Amino acid sequence: MTDAPDVGELSPPQRTLMGPGPSPVHPRVLKAMSTPLVGHLDPSFVDIMDETQELLRYAFRTDNEWTIPVSGTGSAAMEAAIGNLTEPGDTFLAPTNGYFGDRMAEMARRAGGEVVRVDAPWGEPLDPADVADAFAEHQPDVFGFVHAETSTGAKQTNVPELTDIAHEHDALVIADTVTSLGGVELRVDEWGIDAAYSGPQKCLSCPPGASPLTLNDDAMDKVLSREEDPRSWYLDLSLLEGYWGDERAYHHTAPVSNVYALREALRLVAEEGIEARWERHERVAGALKAGVEAMGLGLNPEDDYWLPSLNAVRVPAGVEDGDVIDYVLDHYDLEIASGLGALEGDVFRIGCMGHGARPENVTLVVAALADAFDALGADVDAAAGLAATREALREQ
Fold first, then answer.
1. Sign of the alpha-carbon dihedral angle for 156, 203, 72, 60
2. Side-chain half-sphere of 355: how many Cα atoms within 13 Å?
3. Which CATH architecture has domain 274-395?
4. What mean pLDDT, rounded, does the chain reach?
5. Which pTM does this prediction carry?
6. Could you list the residue ranges forming a coiled coil in this record (predicted)?
7. How would you label 327-348 residue by residue, b for 16+ Cβ within 10 Å and e otherwise?
8. pLDDT(396) > 80
9. Most buried of the four, 133, 210, 228, 354, by CB within 10 Å?
10. Cβ atoms < 10 Å from Cβ of 91
11. How far is CA 167 from CA 84, 162, 193, in A?
């Protein structure tokens, strides 16, 4: 038998998290996680479950009864939505315009769906005309799109047009709102979205572990009328309905402390007001955008579909993205990230989400980038970037 490992006290570094997630966690959320644990069927926790569901409805802008936190990361909520609404033999229409559209397609394939694609370049939204053509050709049963594509920094515009097209063909619509919920305008009911999933660690600034999901009556009707059980027992929404619905019957042990955290994060959303929160993200991220554009860098998406919560900043000539990322981490304890997929090496992904969407954080990002570019020999106008950020914040 080996000796007991000699492991010291946990002491992670104090980072400023301005990458694509996780985002900085509000102190109130951390405090909520440290409150006493109770059982997952304790009457007091049942009350907390009810409150969390009501707060989620507010953030999603929905009256959907079936609105829950899935026990797991955002990918668990994603798989719960796709795996329950896609039956073997269903045709699933997925986008090609980003990394997470590809993940939608893969999850639908594993659920037994026949996957077809609607094309758009990386960094651009889907064109409703192309979606209409895809429906005419393939007659899909389920249509998935990414509202805020974390890999490209592009926001899907014209969402009601897309959902109208799908509903005209009696298809259900699933929206990936992982990087938009709580930070970018999202109106599930008004826009006709049948199911939406998200992650807590983005614009809600909550540790991962309990992930938002909402389904309307049409979506739940399909879940409850399936001829074949979903392939995942753990994520079977017909079983989870017994736990999160009126019965409160045991299904699994919920991550109680993560639900505490999500509830407190959502309380912060409600206290700020959802519309005011959307406006704050756009305003503060706008100062970051002004700064990098003044440096001469530019962003990957066009202004019409710029995503305030995730800024895909182009890497300047003369430097490698990894060298810049390492520099700001080593010198500033600042986390930003590189591109994914087709944009790998071409962009930095800089989040401006939740508790991270504050003036001092975007000022730090621009200053740290200016220093890194100067040290690594990139030909950018660092002074102009800093001045533009300061001016944009001053005007606020």
1. negative
2. 22
3. Alpha-Beta Complex (3.90)
4. 96
5. 0.97
6. none
7. bbbeebebbbbbbbeebeebbb
8. no
9. 354
10. 17
11. 19, 9, 10
Residue 71: left (phi > 0), alpha (psi -120 to 50), or beta? beta
Domain 27-271 -> CATH class: alpha beta
CA-based nearest residue to 150, from 176, 119, 130, 169: 176
Q: Residues 211-240: pLDDT tens digits?
A: 999 999 999 999 999 999 999 999 999 999
Q: Where are the domains of the chain?
A: 27-271, 274-395
How far from chain centre, in Å, is Cα 52? 18
